[in-house]
Structure formats: C-alpha cells, structure tokens
Amino acid sequence: MALSYYRQGTASLSVAGLGWPEESLVNRPHGIAHAGSVAGIGGLGWPGGSSRESRGVQVDEGRSTIGGIEIPGARVAQREEAHSPDSALTRGTTPVVVPEIRSDPTDTPIARAAEAAVSVRGLGDRQPWPRPARCRIMTIANQKGGVGKTTTAVNLAASLAQHGSRVLVVDLDPQGNASTALDVPHHSGVPSVYDVLIDDRPLAEVVQPAGEMPGLYCAPATIDLAGAEIELVPVVARELRLAKALRAFDTSNLDYVLVDCPPSLGLLTLNALVAAEEVLLPIQCEYYALEGVQQLLNTAELVRVNFNPGLHVSTVLLTMYDGRTRLASDVADDVRAHFGTSVLSTIIPRSVRVSEAPSRGQSVISYDPASSGAIAYTEAAHELALQSADAR
C-alpha cells in the first residue's frame, strides 16, 4: 500500500487491498475522498461501477454442470449482472449451488434419536426377543477393576428385561454398585447376599424388585459382604455356598441370573464361578485389561476341573472402546483372534451417559435410551438373546 500526499497542491490516495480501489486513483484537494464520491472501485463491499443493473436470478431445475462437473438433482442459480461502460471491472456469471430438500422431511436427528429410544425401550419391536429354554446362570467376572463388570451386568439385565425377559442380578461386590444402579436399598441391616452366604438365609428372602422396571430383580450386597471372605475361611465347602443357595432358589420363572463379581479372585468370585454355567468376560480396550485375562482363565479352568465341569467362557464383551486410538483397535483384534466367535460383535463405546446413570439410581437404558451407550448395550443384549435361541 502506497500513500502520497500534496502533489502539486492536490492530495491523492492510491490504495490496493480489501474493500479499496484496485485500479482507480482518487483525487480530492487537501483530503481523502469519501465513499460516496468513489467510482469504478473493485473490492469487497465496494461498487464496481457508477451504475449497475441487476437482471435477476435464473434457476435451472434440471441436471446442471459447474466447472465441468455434473451435479444431479441440484438447482443451479446464476446471477447475471450488467456492467457500465466506464467500469474498470467486468464480472461474468457466478454459479450458486442450492442444496435440494431431503425427500423425507421426517428424517431429522431428533426423529432418529426418538426412533432409537423407542427401540431401546422395546416398544418398536415387531417380534419379541427369543428367550432361553431354561434359566442361564452367568458370572460376569474379571479381576481387573474398572473394566465395566457392574455396568455390563446392570445394563444387560435392564435391556433384557425391557424386551420381555425375567432377570435376576446377584450383587456379589461389597461395594454394592449394582444395587445402587438398580435402585435397590443396600444399607447395613438390609437382608443381603451376605446373609445367604454366611447364615444360610434363603435367597428368596433377599431378592427385591429392581426399581420400577418389570421383570428385573436384584439380590443386594451390603458392606457386611466385605468381611465374608474372612468368615468363610473355616467353613466347610466354602466354595459351594452360592451354588447351594441358587439350587434351592426357584429359577423356573427366570430367564437369566447375572452374578456381578468383585474385582478380585477371592472366595466371592470363586463362589460365583462354581455356581454358574457360563462366564461373561468384559474386557476394557486397553493393555492392562489384557494382562489379567489369562489369570482369570486359569482360575476358571481350575474350577471347571475340580468343582464345575460345565463351566465355560461363553461370551466376551469389549467395553470402553475409544475409536480415536489405535491401541483400542489392536486390543479388539487380539481379543477376537484369541476368543473367536465368543466375542460379541457389538463393542461398547465410552459414553458419559453410562457414567451418569447410576447417580440417578438408573441404568443407562432407562436414563437416556437414545445415547450411544444405551444403544450399544441393547445390541449386545440382543446378541445374548440370540445365543439362547441358537443353543436350543
């Protein structure tokens, strides 16, 4: 940009830039010309000539081409402008692409979220999910903490119950997080799994309905369960306490019993492995989660040989998947290579809603059925139900 002043008594300004004349010279004695006196100026926001006349907009409704590229179904509007003879700039036609309207006006993000919520709640299914021929007793175990055992137990149970199954969740973790998520009282003094294991109390006297969700029940855990492993040490057949209680419990009206285990391989987890027929293994898509899997498999094999010949790892669920990292994909590939068809095709992504739901005493299925976590757990539960149909 160049400025020159007071040339033979006349101030002149020559500026090239955004919004200023590019090829014109503005002269005004002892000052700078204002916008109203500028003619023939090209630039953003400035007129290109002293007079312009618009001929309107012409729209071609057919198939149009822009720069040699054909755009099917688009409407192309071209603005034709006349230029005055004294204008220094000449403008041609300017193509403007007008996006076409969707053929289905109801296909909106809100509509899709509502459709997903209806499906998660089991209200949009044309056919009910298949139910097992007899009750499936599954232990959800992994000695690694924070991999999603309780979250998986609660949300799979809630999703199965929403779609017509009858499910019992046995909370075997002294923290009682599954009881919290299912809105079941589990303060000290409430009849709980502790009384079943230590005092031989019937399981039927402990089971409570889970919140307002029909078909879902919970055997709560209290803080007293933290001392159960020490108290069970001198007890004869201490590994069989839960199995004995489940055999005495009438499971004919149930489709699934899901046992939520603590993050350890102590006597509580051992009781759960002896009592179950299947192991559901949640694996977080991170390296540390893989390290403890082999130890759990070794423990399950010892239980199978010595106590429970029918025990097997029937289901593996990948949790907390973060698609932005290559590590998550590598862990998923390794797990699928090792466990094969036992790995559910559904992967549970990281979801804030899944973490928020327990604070409201709900599963994510009822808290936010349109969230990614609710949809993923519903798909995983559907795969679990289809396993039941294939096993018949």
Could you characterize what this model shows?
- This protein is an alpha/beta fold and 392 residues long.
- Helices cover 31% and strands 22% of the residues.
- The chain has helices spanning 109-120, 149-162, 177-181, 193-199, 228-231, 241-248, 267-275, 287-291, 293-306, 326-339, 352-356, 364-367, 372-390, and strands at 2-7, 10-14, 26-28, 53-60, 64-66, 69-71, 75-82, 94-98, 136-140, 167-171, 208-209, 216-219, 256-260, 278-284, 312-321, 343-349.
- The strands form four sheets. It has an eight-stranded mixed beta sheet, with helices on both faces. A three-stranded antiparallel beta sheet has the order 1-2-3, with no helix packed on it. It has a three-stranded antiparallel beta sheet with strand order 4-7-8, with no helix packed on it.
- Mean pLDDT is 77; it is low at 1-20, 22-67 and 73-91.
Keywords:
single chain; eight-stranded mixed sheet; three-stranded antiparallel sheet; 16 strands; globular; disordered N terminus
Mean pLDDT: 77
List the uncertain runs. 1-20, 22-67, 73-91
Biggest beta sheet attributes: 8 strands, mixed
How would you spell out the order of helices and strands?
Answer: EEEEEEEEHEHEHHEEHHEHEHHEHEHHH
Assess the beta-strand content as a share of residues.
15-25%
Number of strands: 16
Please work out how many helical segments DSSP would assign. 13
In helices, the fraction of residues equals: 25-40%
Distance between the termini: 84 Å
Specify the structural class: alpha/beta
Radius of gyration: 35 Å
Strand line-up in the sheet with most strands: 11-12-10-13-9-14-15-16
What general outline do the C-alpha atoms trace?
globular
